[in-house]
Amino acid sequence: MDILLIGGLWLDASAWDAVVSDLEARGHRPVPVALPGQGDGSASATLDDQVAAVLAAVDAADKPLVAGHSAACTLAWLAADARADAVSEIVLIGGMPGNDGEPYADFFEVEDGVMPFPGWGEFDGPDSADLDERAKASFAAHAVPVPEGVSRGVVRLADERRFDVPVTLVCPEFTSAQAKEWLAAGQMPELARARRLDYVDIDSGHWPMFTKPAELAGILARIADGV
After folding, report:
1. Which superkingdom (predicted)?
2. What are the domain boundaries of the chain?
3. What are the pLDDT digits (tens) for 20-29?
4. 2-225 adopts what CATH topology?
């Protein structure tokens, strides 16, 4: 199956390299999506540009599974909104979809038109507990500042058929039990309306593509295979 992989903030497509090789060995066709403004040197990219890149990847694939990580869970969900009939399933890794009318990822300060990686102090605890100092240094060195037009872009959802697309929430630094509590408390309104929502735990921090790539690939492969 075609599996589209969409990285979160500060990541370029190479973040998925270890996951890609494992998925290929399992017989799938992984496609890391190159997001405008995250790896191509463009600081003027907008959220619409990133959505267009994701939709182009969907259109070029054969009924793909679309996996989004962290903030890009919203990009995966926007793909379900725009291409409900063309997406087989959505996988959300370490995040949840944003809501219509809200900023995409206005989480940290913008400097000179971009939102740089804010440093590891913002991610102390479960997010980064499985990253050693060498891994942290490598991440920070390769982190791509996210254009303001992306981080502060407004999410627009329009087609309620998105709720018909099956969803799996992969839970890394939080557990499926916690996610279910958030859902019950009304903190994930988009997922609360999903007609099929499954949960999978993975024992990792927020970036399992770096720390548990084989396990993450196994989870994606099993979802794609319907196991």
Report:
1. Bacteria
2. 2-225
3. 999 999 999 9
4. Rossmann fold (3.40.50)
